[in-house]
Design a protein that fits this description.
Blueprint lengths: L4 E10 L7 H21 L11 E2 L3 E6 L7 H22 L7 E13 L2 E3 L1 H10 L2 H8 L5 E6 H6 L14 E4 L9 E7 L16 H7 L1
Parallel strand pairs: 4-6
Antiparallel strand pairs: 1-3, 1-4, 2-3, 4-5, 6-8, 7-8
Helix pairs in contact: 1-2
Length: 214
């Protein structure tokens, strides 16, 4: 077994996909993968900086390498907002095929074997992504997407108020005790449906660009 490797974890999951017919699920999956790929590319998080996508049925997992070209700030200030914008554009253009997403960002050690990957960091990420309170927040909103980040990501990145990342937009969410080892998380609604631009804003694609903006 390969020793655990550090990865930034970003995963998405489609709301209510179990209610869809199989052809509708097929369309949703194609659209979801396409939007996710575009959003990562907007932040410069291309294939050299991440592992291959891992399919989750009605969701997708991306594991980002710990390299200078893919800091967590770029996921939060470029990739996630771009995904929200692209999703809102899709839903506006295809109202009969609208869908909404939950997104999680976490980081930690991931172990790989011949059958895939596993580890507590992934357990935490998917507990957050599938937490009932997170689903209810999206369900009670008209927004296309909700983002949940772990305490670690909030403490190390979000709360420092980097350019393009507003800590005041996040609210703390206490989770049930059954969610061990997860006790809390931070959530924000991504409402890109109002005043959606035809094209996402210029992405940060190099570390030098990020440093100039910081």
């Amino acid at each position: 077994m390969i020793p655990p490797l550090h990865r930034t974890i970003i995963a998405i999951d489609a709301e209510g996909s179990t209610r869809l017919t199989d052809p509708a699920k097929g369309y949703l999956r194609r659209a979801m993968y396409d939007l996710f790929e575009q959003a990562l590319a907007a932040g410069g998080v291309t294939e050299p900086y991440r592992d291959s996508f891992l399919d989750r049925g009605d969701g997708v997992l991306a594991l980002i390498h710990p390299v200078d070209q893919a800091p967590k700030t770029v996921l939060l200030d470029t990739v996630v907002p771009t995904l929200g914008t692209l999703l809102a554009q899709h839903n506006r253009r295809h109202p009969e095929r609208q869908f909404r997403l939950r997104v999680v960002v976490h980081a930690g050690e991931v172990t790989f074997d011949d059958n895939g990957c596993f580890g507590e960091a992934l357990d935490v990420a998917f507990r957050l992504l599938n937490a009932g309170p997170v689903k209810r927040i999206l369900g009670g909103s008209d927004a296309p997407m909700v983002l949940v980040v772990s305490d670690d990501v909030y403490r190390c990145v979000v709360r420092h108020d980097y350019d393009g990342i507003d800590p005041k937009a996040f609210c703390r969410l206490m989770l049930p005790r059954t969610s061990h080892p997860v006790r809390s998380a931070w959530v924000r609604v991504i409402d890109a449906s109002k005043g959606v631009a035809e094209r996402p804003y210029d992405p940060v694609t190099r570390l030098e660009d990020y440093r100039r903006r910081a």
